[in-house]
Every structure is written in structure tokens, then in C-alpha cells.
Amino acid sequence: MEKLYLTWQDVENNLLKMSLNLLLSGFKPTIIFGLARGGLIPSVILSHLLNTNFSQIQISLRDGKVGHLSNQDNKTEIVEDLISDRIPFIIKNEKILIVDDINDSGKTLSTLKKCLYDKWRQYFDLYDKWGQYFDCDLNKFEEIWASNIRTAVLVNNLNSEFDVDLFGVEINKAEKDVWVVFPWENVKNNH
Question: What is the DSSP secondary structure assignment for residue 130, as one 8-state letter?
């Protein structure tokens, strides 16, 4: 398997390009959620470039399991626990950017986005049922969801199951199996 080594300069150049493309698209996030661990560094840098708030979500898909710290019992329940305190962001009609280092198979981002969607839809329905109103039209949930959530990664695998909204570098693992090494993973070799 071939390795693709990204340098700090590659990361900076791609994040600058991504932030510019994001702003040119008209989407200015009010908060960036970085996925721990790999998405933390790019999301923090993007939050500085865009002068935007930052928060982290700790989610890890390994061997078909979703884990949060040491608890790996039920993936949906765990992910819902991770995002429950983030529900007010969508209800308040915030613009959210979810950032990870790589979209490889697409499982992490698709699992997280589906859980976010399901949970936020549940909250919207609950509040609508009780007659509580927010600054947005609850009958237009799909439109609100589509216009307020974006995903971004430094490296996107063209053959992933998940389509990201923004990426820096694109690879195609169906043509060439590549292992991407980020500079924060290559610390021993940088000294």
C-alpha cells in the first residue's frame, strides 16, 4: 500500500482554499464541530480562519463499532448522547460545519449525520407538538436542515459512501490504495 504524506504546508494551503470556497458559496458557519481525534486540528484551524466558534464531537468508528471513551454498547444511543447537548444549535437556526480529517469509507460522517438528523427531527416534532415555536418554520425542517449543515474534510475518497460538501484533496482508493499520513500523525519523523 502506498502512503501519501501531507505536510503542514499542504494542510494549511488546503484549509485556506476550503475556507475561501466555503465563504464564496455563501455559507458562513456560526459553529464548527470537529470530530475527535483526526478532525480536531483541521477544525480548529478552520475556526480561526473563519473567526467561528468551535466545539468537538468524540466519535470513532473502528471495526463497525462506534465508541465514546470506553463505552461501546449501542452505537445509536452513544451517538445520540454525544449530540444531545448540540441540539439547540439547529433549533436556533445556526449554521453548522462538521469537520473531519478524511472521508474514507464514509461510515463515520454518514452515521453522525443520520443520528443528528434523526435526533433534531425528533426535537422539532416534539416542540411542534407542544406548540413551542422558535425563530424558524417547523414545517420547513428539510429546508432548514439542508441549508444549515455542511461537512468538510481535508482528504476525500472519491469512492466513499458519503458525499462531503467540501474537501481539500481527493483520492480514489478504487484505483490506487493509498494510506494518508497527516503531519500530526508523523511527529516522530519530523524531528
Answer: T
DSSP label of 139? G
**Inside any domain, residue 190:** no
Q: Which helix (H) or strand (E) holds 170?
A: strand 166-171
Residue carrying C-alpha cell 480548529? 44
Beta strand pairing call for 2-5 and 178-181? parallel
What pLDDT does 40 receive? 93
- Is it true that the peptide bond before 62 is cis, omega within 30 degrees of 0? no
Domain that holds residue 144: 2-184
SS3 (DSSP) at 128: helix
Residues 6+ apart with CB under 8 A from 159: 172, 173, 174
Number of domains in the chain: 1
* Lookup: cell for 20: 475561501
| Domain-embedded: residue 74 | yes
CATH number at residue 47: 3.40.50.2020
- CB 165, CB 156: distance < 8 Å: no
| pLDDT tens figures, 8-57 | 999 999 999 999 999 999 999 998 989 888 999 999 999 999 999 888 88
